Amino acid sequence: MAQRDRQKQETRARIVAVAARLLRERGAAGMSVGDVMAQAGLTHGGFYAHFRTKDDLVAAALAEATEHREAWLAPRAGETEAQWVTGIARRYLNRGHRAEPAAGCPFPAVLAELARGDGPMRPALRAELEATLGRMAENLDRPSSDAGATRALSPDDKARGLLALFVGGLMISRAMDEDDGAAMLAAARRFAIAASQDEDHPA
Predict the structure, then answer these.
(1) What region holds the HTH tetR-type domain (predicted)?
(2) What is the pTM of this model?
């Protein structure tokens, strides 16, 4: 690869990394091209050498922001479904994640506005949601005929329910004051853990 091409790729990666952080922190509407380029140490005019529109940048930033999914979704060796859900709930639904959106999951910051968007943003959001749901479903047990109500659900349905609980719980907690927000996180966390367990399959 020519040095010029390599430098262009590195510059683009720097822009996307800054945009991913601002996207988590401010959402797409609050993330301006000018702010992204300034924080990347570049001029505003240089943006168009890498992206046609802000929507294209948002789509790339969303993909970058969700690359962390494997780190928090990967199960430990020998981990049961209940143990995996417990670990995910504790990692996602906690005060640190609530307080540091720029370093966390992008979905709470972008779901409402990107779902209303046109252009590349909505397909990009759908693709990242589907990838996350698919990875979650891989870690959830298959249903059996004698299972309880929760365990009788398909892995896909359990993944959808858990992601809705995690993202919704975090979004609501951030809209509350500190104490009420912490209580919301704790309640969502307890519910997720309880739903993953039954008497025949202790965590």
Answers:
(1) 9-69
(2) 0.83
